[in-house]
Amino acid sequence: MGIEGTLIGCRVEIQTIVEKSTMDSIENALEPVPDENPQDTHEVTTMELAAQTTFAERAGRTQGRMWWGFVRLERKAHGCLVVQGWALGVAKAALLVIKLVVLGVLFYAAFWLALLLLFLVAAAWTVRTADWDDEPEPEWRTGADGFGLFDGGHPLHVRFF
Question: 45: helix, coil or strand?
Answer without folding.
Answer: coil
